[in-house]
Design a protein that fits this description.
With 206 residues, this protein is an alpha+beta fold. Helix content is 30%, strand content 33%. It has one domain: Pnp Oxidase, Chain A (Roll), CATH 2.30.110. A 6-stranded antiparallel barrel has the order 1-2-3-6-5-4, surrounded by 4 helices. A hairpin with a 5-residue loop joins β2 and β3.
Length: 206
C-alpha cells in the first residue's frame, strides 16, 4: 500500500463496497519456494467478513490448501491512470500514477465439495443480476454430465477476512483546482484503465 497516510484514510465500508462491486481480484500467498498467485472472481458476504470463491483443482494453491488453511491476501484493483505534471497547471510537479486498490487480508480454507454448487450459483447470480434486463442465467441450463465434469475440476474455498487495507490515490495532496484540472485531462487519456471513473473519483476526493 502507498505509505502516504492521506491516501489511506478511506472508510473500511467504502473499500468493502468497492471490492464487492468489482468481485474480481488477485489471490496472493507466500511460500518458501515462490509466491503463489491466482486471478479469481469472488463474492463477499453481507457482513464483509468472508468471501466465497473457487479454484481449479490443479492450481498449486489448491494443493497447498489440502495441507490446511493458509494466510493470504486478495488484491482488488480499481481504475488507474498516468497523471502528467502539465495537467495540474501549477509549477514544480512530477509525473505520478493515480489508482484505487483494496487489499483483503485473511485466511483461505478449502471447503467440502458439497459447498461448491451453492457458491457457484450465488456467484453467477451476483454477476448476472448486473446484466438486467437480460434474464438471469441458471446452472440448470447446462446438461448434468457437463456440470458433473466441471464440478470435478474445481474446488470451493472460503476466505476469512481479518483486515482491510486500501489506497485511494486520487491527488488529495494537491490543491482542489489543480486536481480538477488533472481530472479533466485524465478523462480522455488512454494511459490507464477506466480513466473516466478515476477522473470522477479525483473530483470527488477530499
Amino acid at each position: 500500500m502507498h505509505p502516504n497516510p492521506i491516501f489511506r484514510k478511506t472508510d473500511v465500508q467504502k473499500s468493502l463496497d468497492f471490492a464487492n462491486a468489482v468481485s474480481f481480484g488477485t489471490l496472493c500467498l507466500s511460500t518458501d519456494a515462490e509466491p503463489l498467485i491466482s486471478h479469481i472472481p469472488f463474492q463477499l458476504s453481507a457482513t464483509g467478513t468472508t468471501a466465497d470463491l473457487h479454484l481449479v483443482r490443479s492450481n498449486p494453491i489448491t494443493r497447498r490448501l489440502q495441507q490446511g488453511p493458509l494466510a493470504a491476501t486478495l488484491v482488488v484493483m480499481g481504475p488507474h491512470g498516468y497523471i502528467s505534471p502539465d495537467w495540474y497547471e501549477i509549477e514544480n510537479q512530477v509525473p505520478t500514477w493515480n489508482y484505487v486498490s483494496v487489499h483483503l487480508i485473511g485466511t483461505l480454507t478449502l471447503l467440502d465439495q458439497d459447498r461448491l454448487p451453492p457458491i457457484l450459483d450465488a456467484l453467477s447470480d451476483h454477476f448476472e443480476a448486473q446484466l438486467s434486463p437480460k434474464p438471469i442465467w441458471k446452472m440448470a441450463k447446462v446438461e448434468k454430465e457437463s456440470i458433473e465434469k466441471m464440478f470435478h475440476q474445481i474446488v470451493p474455498c472460503k476466505f476469512d477476512i481479518s483486515d482491510v487495507q486500501s489506497t485511494w490515490k486520487l491527488g488529495q495532496n494537491k490543491p482542489d483546482a489543480a486536481r480538477h484540472h488533472a481530472a479533466d485531462r485524465l478523462e480522455t487519456s488512454a494511459l490507464g484503465a477506466e480513466t473516466k471513473q478515476l477522473a470522477k473519483l479525483m473530483r470527488d476526493a477530499k
